[in-house]
Write a structure and sequence with these properties.
Elements: E1 2-5, H1 26-29, H2 56-79, H3 84-103, H4 106-122, E2 132-138, E3 142-144, E4 148-157, E5 166-172, E6 175-181, E7 189-197, E8 202-206, E9 210-214, E10 221-225, E11 230-235, H5 248-253, E12 260-261, E13 266-272, H6 284-290, E14 294-299, E15 305-310, H7 320-339, E16 343-348, E17 351-353, H8 358-366, H9 378-388, E18 394-400, H10 405-413, E19 420-426, E20 434-438, E21 441-446, H11 452-460
Parallel strand pairs: 3-11, 15-16, 15-18, 18-19, 19-21
Antiparallel strand pairs: 1-6, 2-4, 4-7, 5-6, 5-9, 8-11, 9-10, 12-14, 13-14, 16-17, 20-21
């Protein structure tokens, strides 16, 4: 399996002019102060006015634009089959023909004829179509950074004739793998196993599988896409954390919720029985004393609402490795909260991340990119967390080492009153975790992912 990189050049279609302006009288061109101007289509004239027909020049210009758009699409398709070596050969042939004609060099004439003949003999190899049945199977579509994604590519000859040897291209992200397929008899299959190394977090597009047709010299190449691409999610590294007991007291002993429930934990009062009430909540002593059936009424209690804010501002981090460490920290804390049956709300400056399950949370982190500088830093993130999750019990802010104490203090002040705040600073220069207080928040600094567990235990101790 060989891997090469090829740039993908987007093509731009020529703009096409739609419609043609009509003519209007001078009175219509200048609306009065009591009237507002109206915008009308050129194809639908107003009543009482006749729209002038497009001029011959406008017709010609529109026709030329349409022809150029079609021609450009065909030129782009033809240019896509030329390999870099093919462009070199075409340029060399043009230079040699110019030198032979302009200066009368016989040597240049012979060389130009040889290069032109090679180009002409390579073109017929592009014609034809290879009808393989393609089956792409990835054993796992979600891996962690550093793991290998293993898959199998099965090619089947579903025709009634033998297929000659060919090559199959499997794009993987920005690179591609090329497989040599031997001659296949009718109904015969060929399987290729492959492994995709993952060195960085992200979402890779594996495929679509293409059958490659080209000449032996490598001047031209044409592919036939046989199947849609498969997404490979490369999750960030995470570490297992002990149970996060932050915020548990708020659920039962914090500010009461005004909504009353028939069944919960926090007892509120007694009321008369109503049809549909559970008989398990009947208070028999009050029932015997009053003569009416009395049931318990409860105040609604909340599950711990856990909010994780990950700063994506590029200026909050010294290096790209620090940003990746912050993503791993946010992923580890979020997964621990989900395992503890917390309501998880994960956010960046772009908005909320999908975090209804561990898999979807890691998928969102795998596709995460740095935010735009105009979206603000950790202070803006804290404001978005306060607006998006006003009933949060615990808020965890994750940022880089360039964020100073003043910014952290201002960010924590924007969070709702009474929320337990934990700030985690990713600093790859730190040799050991450290803990300090900034305002009402506990601030932990870690230099590696394996230090996170010890740092969290310091906060809980």
């Amino acid at each position: 399996m060989t891997t090469t990189r090829e740039p993908v050049e987007p093509t731009r279609a020529a703009p096409r002019r739609v419609g043609a302006p009509g003519t209007a009288t001078a009175a219509d061109a200048a609306p009065t102060a009591s009237e507002s101007p109206t915008f009308e289509s050129a194809e639908t004239p107003r009543p009482g006015l006749s729209a002038s027909a497009p001029s011959r020049w406008e017709h010609a210009r529109e026709s030329a634009a349409a022809v150029l758009a079609v021609a450009w699409r065909h030129i782009a398709r033809v240019a896509a089959v030329v390999r870099p070596l093919g462009w070199v050969a075409l340029a060399l042939a043009a230079v040699l023909w110019f030198a032979a004609v302009a200066y009368g060099w016989s040597e240049a004439m012979v060389a130009a004829a040889v290069v032109t003949a090679a180009l002409a003999l390579s073109i017929p190899f592009l014609f034809g179509r290879t009808a393989y049945g393609v089956d792409l199977d990835l054993t796992r579509t979600r891996v962690v950074v550093g793991e290998r994604a293993v898959g199998a590519l099965t090619l089947t000859n579903g025709t009634g004739r033998a297929l000659l040897p060919s090559e199959v291209v499997l794009p993987v992200g920005a690179g591609r793998g090329v497989f040599d397929v031997p001659r296949l008899a009718a109904g015969e299959s060929h399987e290729e196993l492959f492994a995709i190394p993952t060195t960085a977090r992200g979402v890779l597009a594996v495929g679509p599988v293409s059958v490659l047709r080209g000449d032996p010299l490598g001047l031209f190449e044409r592919t036939h896409d046989r199947r849609q691409a498969v997404e490979l999610f490369v999750h960030p590294r995470t570490t297992a954390l002990d149970g996060l007991s932050l915020g548990q007291m708020r659920d039962l002993e914090g500010l009461p919720v005004q909504q009353l429930e028939r069944d919960d934990v926090s007892f509120h009062a007694l009321r008369e029985y109503q049809p549909g009430d559970d008989l398990r909540h009947v208070h028999w002593k009050s029932t015997a004393r009053t003569g009416d059936v009395m049931v318990r009424q409860y105040e609604q209690t909340r599950r711990s609402h856990f909010v994780v804010g990950l700063s994506g501002h590029p200026d909050d981090y010294r290096t790209a490795d620090e940003f990746e460490l912050a993503i791993s920290i946010a992923g580890s804390v979020g997964l621990r909260a989900l395992r503890d049956s917390r309501v998880l709300d994960a956010r960046t400056q772009h908005g909320a991340l999908r975090a209804d399950s561990g898999r979807r949370f890691l998928d969102a982190l795998a596709a995460l990119e740095p935010t735009r500088p105009r979206d603000g830093g950790v202070v803006a993130l804290a404001g978005a967390m306060a607006v998006g999750a006003p009933q949060a019990a615990v808020a965890v802010l994750v940022c880089g080492s360039t964020v100073d104490a003043a910014e952290l203090r201002l960010a924590c002040s924007r969070l709702p009153y009474g929320v337990r705040v934990l700030a985690v600073v990713a600093d790859v220069r730190a040799d050991a975790p450290s803990l300090r207080r900034v305002g009402e928040a506990d601030v932990v600094t870690v230099g590696a992912l394996d230090q996170l567990g010890r740092a969290v235990r310091k906060v809980l101790s």
